[in-house]
């Protein structure tokens, strides 16, 4: 029997993402839905962000002590007198996940978070972590995801995403929630629930033409232009309403056939996408029978640091319609 690639990395990443997802769920339950929080108070998501990063980085450190990590967050806001209140909350929450022998001191907590400060690059292996992707989704009780990927020599080899609010079965939107997605390069894409470790292979839906397709896009038009995507939909003969959701849950949804096309159209000349917003999701898509490129048809280049400096926007779809989607994207964007 051929030994599965990256078996230990896969197992550790699943455990880390599940634990971090549970931290986020408990913060939401105790803080966001509590009465103490005002609408524009971002602190609950901040606490969950830092704790989730500390939890994942600690697991990675235990099993792969020399692996560097590109994580979205750093401990700056948790340091000194000004960071004391936040630090204490994050400390308590993070230690709630670990056994008595694994408890972190405050210093070790800050150190764990800052292990995410790696610059990335083209050689060797490193992890990319978004402790909460879709922070706005988290706050509104919508979609968010804990996203972890392993990048080796600039190529994503493993991606694990925890989506606490995503229904396990899209056909039962009011059914159980908490979906975990796993992809290893060359080994396919899988889904399981948070509570049952049985994994099911997933793939894109078998639409024959773009007319049958559904778009999936960001909730915020500031992150992807809704007006451009409407024009692209028209060119492709798409009549179904776009499904809007936050976070890399979009990649997960299309990979299991809930939608078909994820468009992230550039909204500004200056915004550069971050690797942690796309690494795990893009591998899931290609392993589920999809294709991913930027709006110019270039492969996403994860080898140039913490950002996707060489790319503009993202187009992900079922592989068989990708070139047609790209053509429509080009037609609309070139007129601007
Ligand atoms: N201007 C702009 N353009 C494009 N992308 C941006 C921009 N600003 C931020 N971000 C990043 O978007 C991440 C969330 O993406 P989403 O697809 O979830 O957006 S949305 O919440 O649905 O609007 C979000 O990830 P999180 O910070 O992890 O939530 C950001 O990294
Ligand atoms: Mg993000
Ligand atoms: Mg984030
Ligand atoms: Mg952020």
Automatic annotation (TrEMBL):
InterPro entries: DPNP (IPR006239), Inositol_monoP_metal-BS (IPR020583), Inositol_monoP_superfamily (IPR051090), Inositol_monophosphatase-like (IPR000760), Inositol_monophosphatase_CS (IPR020550). PANTHER family: 3'(2'),5'-BISPHOSPHATE NUCLEOTIDASE, PHOSPHATASE. One of its GO terms (biological process) is phosphatidylinositol phosphate biosynthetic process. Mg(2+) binds at residues 72, 130, 132-133, 277. It comes from the Eukaryota. Belongs to the inositol monophosphatase superfamily. Pfam families: Inositol_P. It catalyses: 3'-phosphoadenylyl sulfate + H2O = adenosine 5'-phosphosulfate + phosphate; adenosine 3',5'-bisphosphate + H2O = AMP + phosphate; adenosine 2',5'-bisphosphate + H2O = AMP + phosphate. This is 3'(2'),5'-bisphosphate nucleotidase. SUPFAM superfamilies: Carbohydrate phosphatase. CDD domains: PAP_phosphatase. Its EC number is 3.1.3.7. Keywords: Hydrolase, Magnesium, Metal-binding. Its cofactor is Mg(2+). GO terms for molecular function: 3'(2'),5'-bisphosphate nucleotidase activity; metal ion binding. Gene3D superfamilies: 3.40.190.80, Fructose-1,6-Bisphosphatase, subunit A, domain 1. It comes from Mortierella isabellina.
